């Protein structure tokens, strides 16, 4: 049985203005409303659609054009292969699976890390259009978005406003953009799995090339939960496993997969850009006492780098 639920669409503009919690003041009505919507969604499934987070439509178009250029290069074999030990590089088509009981994911991907010039040996081999947009502007915009969204999450959970942002000083665990090309399915096969995951870290920001391109499906439990977002330029944010752990599962990290919803879309290549936000490597992830309930805590403290390494090594390379 497949049940359906809506992903709320949230305007993050109140967190990009010098008002309320952004300047250390009492939250504005608009900030409180946005935080309440985030809290409600994250208690249920962990998915929200956001807009007005500092990424303009024109910049988004440039970003997707650069991603398309990247996957059009002929000499992809020169790119360093992705590996969990460094979490950077190129993943060829059908080279990964996050579920051993399913066929390989119908996608190829390219991961880069902060700061791109020193930790990404493959970057110099990518098209100049990709290097130029990734090397500074994209990361700068997403860093700001991560900090502002972390404030919204802290407000939603009634925590100190810097509870999450204080762990994002170096951004040395973050990856993005994961240029993700979902390849066309031969014969327009509907229902083919483009990829499956439970986001590993604090949160995962996915900017789809079209809001109607894909549906996310829940793989947990006995039923699949189809989630759909309001059509608008923006991004999908989903709670990562680390944030669920941080809140003692008060917020949910839903395992999900991307499927091809219809034959027309199945016949086309599709692109997404993902930005994985994780606390700095040396930060400890420890459940706040307010989430311990009757004093029982589901999780032991763990260093951010150790948790991320554990989750990355769960991936099956084919």
From TrEMBL:
Region (Disordered): 208-227
Domain Non-haem dioxygenase N-terminal span(s) in chain numbering: 7-121
Pfam families in the cross-refs: 2OG-FeII_Oxy (PF03171), DIOX_N (PF14226)
Segments passing through the bilayer: none
PANTHER family reported in the protein's UniProt record: 2-OXOGLUTARATE (2OG) AND FE(II)-DEPENDENT OXYGENASE SUPERFAMILY PROTEIN-RELATED
Protein name per its UniProtKB record: 2(OG)-Fe(II) oxygenase family oxidoreductase
Lineage: Eukaryota, Sar, Stramenopiles, Ochrophyta, Bacillariophyta
InterPro entries linked to this entry: DIOX_N, IPNS-like_FE2OG_OXY, Iron_ascorbate_oxido_reductase
Domain spans labelled Isopenicillin N synthase-like Fe(2+) 2OG dioxygenase: 236-279
